[in-house]
Design a protein that fits this description.
Blueprint: E1 8-11, H1 25-42, H2 50-71, H3 77-87, H4 94-109, H5 118-127, E2 131-136, H6 142-151, E3 160-163, H7 174-184, E4 191-195, H8 198-208, E5 211-215, E6 230-232, H9 238-249
Parallel strand pairs: 1-2, 1-4, 2-3, 4-5, 5-6
Length: about 260
């Protein structure tokens, strides 16, 4: 049976490209609060008593997170930080706000690990003529994620990046997969989606008409691979899978 040729690969971000594992988020949030609070003091900006500063940001962020889970719409964490800052009299330039947001995320970014040969894997996929992109459910600002990927030497590989907080829906909503296909310029049937979540990544990608590859992670440990999907332990297995699928997509020659 012939298959559609693979011309693009879209990746989830957390625990697919960036392997965070189980993170102590409150501890990371506290470190971010300390770093951002010190940043405000260095700039001569109003810096509230630290316990109050920490509590205001934590409560506001948790409320927005709860609302996002109820509405299935992600929020812009930078907007939340700016709202809390405005109440405390903070005034920053756009570039300073980006740095401020990064300081909140930086500790968490240091928890992430990537496969040692990931750049080589992505380079190989590029040499195969494949377009690459990211589709991620997140409330972390685009600027912070770009800085993180840039530090890892990965940003150049992903000209297409869709982050759910910039839309009114998130995975598993099929609309975000259709938008991603449009932005990367290939039909859904010619795209592989790689992710770690069966519910948010694999099943909706298959329903949308994409191919799907499940990457092993703690989020799917012990769970069976959904019918129609493939499973990998490492992203370095992807080039061989694409080659195999594209070989199967070639028309069979009939000797006269």
């Amino acid at each position: 049976m012939a298959h559609d040729e693979i011309k693009a690969v879209l990746f989830d971000l957390g625990d697919t490209i960036l392997n965070f594992g189980k993170v102590k988020t409150t501890k990371a949030f506290l470190a971010g609060a300390r770093a951002s609070h010190a940043f405000l003091k260095e700039l001569g900006q109003p810096a509230a008593w630290f316990p109050w500063y920490f509590a205001c940001n934590l409560v506001r962020m948790r409320i927005r997170y709860l609302i996002s889970n109820l509405t299935h719409k992600d929020f812009d964490s930078l907007e939340v930080l700016q709202a809390v800052g405005a109440r405390q009299g903070v005034h920053l330039s756009p570039s300073q706000w980006d740095e401020f947001a990064w300081l909140w995320y930086e500790t968490l970014s240091r928890c992430a690990q990537v496969e040692p040969d990931l750049r080589e894997t992505l380079s190989t996929l590029g040499r195969m003529g494949l377009k690459l992109g990211i589709v991620s459910n997140t409330f972390v600002s685009r600027a912070s994620l770009a800085k993180h990927l840039s530090q890892l030497g990965l940003l150049e590989f992903f000209p297409v990046q869709l982050y759910s907080y910039e839309y009114h829906f998130r995975k598993p909503n099929s609309e975000i997969f259709r938008i991603a296909a449009d932005k990367i310029g290939e039909p859904l049937a010619n795209i592989i989606f790689v992710g770690d979540r069966i519910d948010n990544d694999i099943l909706p990608a298959l329903r949308s008409g994409m191919h799907a590859v499940l990457k092993d992670a703690y989020t799917n440990a012990g769970k069976p691979t959904p019918p129609g999907a493939r499973r990998i332990r490492l992203l370095s297995e992807l080039p061989a899978i694409v080659e195999q699928m594209n070989a199967a997509a070639q028309p069979t020659r009939v000797n006269p």
